[in-house]
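comment on this one:
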Amino acid sequence: MISVVWPVHSAMRQYSASVDSSKWMVDRTTRLSCTLSHDVPYYGEAIFSASASKNKDLTFNLDMVIRPESYDFAGLESVPPSWRAGMPARSMGKMSLLKKFDGELNNPIAWEMLTELEKGYQPTFYYQDWNNKHDQISVSLSSVNFKKSYWEFLQCRDNLLPYSFEDIAFVVMNYRKNSSELTQSSRKRLDMIGEYLNNDPNIDSIYISAYSDSYGAKNVNLNLSQKRAMAIKEYMASKGVPADKIVADGFGEKRHVAINTTPIGREANRRVIIQISKP
């Protein structure tokens, strides 16, 4: 339990949306991220967000127009609505205040804030004003008009891709022997990359490098690796990536990663490496 003790003769400056001005907005333009935002008049914005990943974890950001001038913390309480007058507020924890940064909270407490809002309570932050030692600040998130947007946000989060950019930024895939056809598991990885590219217009460049094992003539293996690289490039371009952002090279038998005397080693050498970068 966190107890906040205010100095004697202190004043409380309160920021919250009124019943008429309380709005919650959902941004769901792609399958890569979802945000649920709430404007706090004359203070800033409260933003819940989730990003494409395996766990789709939740984060909370308190975007302040005036950021902290010192290092401190804000107490966080769940304040009952006016129609439950007389019920005590419940402490939920605290949020670190870092100099020149917005306030942030991670997955567990962010979810707890959402469930309190769903019940009609108001998560409220309390802290000492860093610009006036005689004032305290309270910042409340209104639960008015929350539920409909919250449900839309949950649906958006459920539809996020179950992997992130980091999961597809560097990928090694393998080919079948004497073929430009990917193995079944590698085709699944390529489809995953393609699905991501369909949702992210901010790809800066893609570098594709293909290699072969050492069975067969060197020129044949070189041509085969180049064919493999170009096939991947054409696939990427079909997903909307500008062709001038894609570089594809075939290196044939160069740069082996395993010996060629075993089937397992040769399969490892029949590979294509995809490296994707963003600005």
In short: The helical segments are 107-118, 147-158, 165-168, 184-199, 218-238, 263-269.
